Amino acid sequence: MKKLMLGNEAAARGLYEAGCSVVSSYPGTPSTEITEFAAKYDEINCEWAPNEKVALETAYGASLAGVRSACAMKHVGLNVAADPLFTLSYTGVTGGLVIFVADDPAMHSSQNEQDSRNYAIAAKVPMVEPSDSAEALSFVKYAFELSEKYDTPVIFRICTRTAHSQSVVETSERVLPARIPYEKKPSKYIMMPAYAKAKHPIVEARTAALAELAETTPLNFVDEGDGSSKLGVITSGICYQYVKEALGDSAKILKIGMQNPLPSKKITDFAASVDRLVVVEELDPVIERHCKTLGLSVEGHSLFPAVGEYSQQLIAAALGLEVPANSPEKVPVRPPVMCSGCPHRGLFYTLAKNRLTVLGDIGCYTLGAQQPLNALDSVLCMGASVSGIHGFLKADPEAASHTVAVIGDSTFMHSGMTGLCNIAYNGTKATVIILDNSITGMTGHQQNPTTGYNIKGDPATKIDLESLCRSLGIRRVRVVDPYDLAACDAAVKEELAADEPSVIISRRPCVLLKYVKTNPPVKIDPDACRGCRACMRLGCPSISMREGRATVDSTLCTGCGVCAQLCRFGAIKKA
Prior knowledge:
Blueprint (H helix, E strand, L loop, with lengths): L1 E5 H11 L4 E4 L6 H7 L6 E4 L3 H13 L4 E6 H6 L1 H10 L5 E7 L13 H7 L3 E2 L4 H18 L3 E6 H5 L1 E5 L15 H4 L3 H24 L4 E3 L7 E6 H11 L4 E5 L1 E3 L4 H8 L3 E5 L5 H8 L18 H7 L25 H10 L3 E3 L24 H12 L7 E6 H17 L5 E6 L28 H7 L4 E5 L4 H13 L4 E6 L15 E2 L18 E4 L2 E4 L19 E2 L2
Parallel strand pairs: 2-3, 2-4, 4-5, 5-7, 6-7, 10-11, 10-13, 14-15, 15-16, 16-18, 17-18
Antiparallel strand pairs: 1-8, 6-12, 9-11, 19-22, 20-21
């Protein structure tokens, strides 16, 4: 059957058809939908893990037990999972193990640009990369076969455009391989030095064997075009689509579907068949460096940038060709903002009003850095706010009176707990604020260990944040409603004045959750409004100024009433 599918949906279908039994992941755009779509197949045991390291180790455990398994994450998630990844290269697998990693060129929803091909090279594991949804499905099946034949985990690289674009896919039935019986093999799976030393030569031999495979695998193929051009382009992934749209059949193309290890003879033969050799790849010059190592004269990043996404227009312009006539019109940029009624807004207003130093974290609340709140001082990576405030106050203990860390409920479970343990253990007088909106908001409302539901929406164990914080050694734990500005202000001031570590839990569910009932929109009394713009300091998209007076967009306003608490003239009325 042929269907139109997103790249992520097709990858999930590949998991189903390949007979994958276990999928464990942590949500991260642009990889999230792989696991969400996989969870729709009852034959696959899917779950959200607390973080990517746990997810990969779970997939490893399932592989060890003899079934096919997978995990999915975004590129920065692979940083978290790097510890088990590098040793998995030594142990190998029992059942096939595929690691999905979604890169995000142009940083649509990420804190950095990162090329995950470098991980495959460093860990010495194979990597495949599709260029459309059809390949996303077929490459998953190939990756499992590769994993089991060569006794290795396989990284499946995808990027934002491939993950979130649609193309035609032909589906087939699920084929469930027989479970491989578990056997006790200490020399294979126990990586203490005596065994690990013996495994390294095996990894090198495997890499050599995979390099031979790269010369013949159908994933690497030559598109001859119209056969008349002497321009040769080596490309991969979504860049193949850009090149085809920009050049059509006017160039000869070597498409690389197996990113690591790269072929040598195939590339050398291809180069010999053209007069001009160009490499088109996002982000790092991985293929270009390989070509230069082979002694080839090649153009790549001398023509194309090492940052951001490519496009057919960029490629055509760089090659001195006419830009395709169907170039899209430029769309005005609309920066992301916290939603109307977002529970984080009141808390951030309180922090900004008190001119506090705020160490932030990864989540919707990162938007607290934007004007007019301008409430954050740093954002590094998941959990870094809690660990960071500990170091900050070790360096400057006096700053404890005006410094806080903020972190979301899901992010706290991901990697904030250990930082809080460090604060308690080392006795740092730090104030940590957990922004509990009862969901993993930034990636589209996925469940997490604090919500009480699993990936399928079934009831699950719910972690009690207050009890957890106390068990980690924090004696001062209090809960506030971020819609209550006076309560937020009092809580922040009291905890900053305390002589011991403390946690404030700012608790109110995300206003976009289906079960959350909103209030009627507030109303502005134009006669009472003085045009002081105090309400504008919230940065709420529902409020604007017209003809010197505040006005509320009733289609956006959720009636949270936070703005009414700022109006000294009683001009904002709750319905």
